[in-house]
Amino acid sequence: MNSNVEENKEPVILLHGLSRTSRSMRPIKRALEKNGYFTFNLDYPSRKKPIEELSEYVRQKIHQKFSDNNPKKIHFVTHSMGGIVLRQIMKSSPLSNLGRVIMLGPPNQGSEIIDRLGPFKLIPLINGPACLQLGTSSGGFLQSLGPVDFELGVIAGSKSINPFLSFLIPGKDDGKVSVERTKINGMNDFCIVHGSHSFMMSNKRVQKETIFFLQNGKFSKKNNA
Fold it and tell me: Which residue of 9, 33, 76, 162 sits 20 to 30 Å from the alpha carbon of 213, by its own alpha carbon?
């Protein structure tokens, strides 16, 4: 770990979602820092490359910031596709010192939005090649990642601010991903909050549950919606 990291603080890496930047993670970054964590809010070019290449980019940035041999566990808070990038890292070049992980609105089993709108050229033109890897096909990229084997808590949102996109998604959803499709085999705990996909990082319940999981390895379950 770099010398500027205080030894008594646990590090948390933040990974934003597709077509976002590290700016979107600032609300939860502030909440974590108020609770004594050191944060590394990592930017990556989510619209430029497929997930395999994005994971290599992120893995290199992590290696530059943190030593793989450091005994201190490194936690993660990811939003949306950021969780998929981490899953690919753990498949292709695992982090030996990975701690607890909280995924916010992750499309772990894909999104029907990609199934329905992906064939239109405008979608990958706007969002890049990685978006086409986020479909629900049984033989798709996401299914090839398999179950997780690290300490994971998943927070799903149940509030949508986009009726059109929600119309394409069966069941409860956050406007981008259904509650059910955020789940993944191997996760340790699961929590639903009444929040929308794009603004989960600003949601006070999400922030509280994230910190609770980092501290306890489970969610408080007091705020399930």
Answer: 162
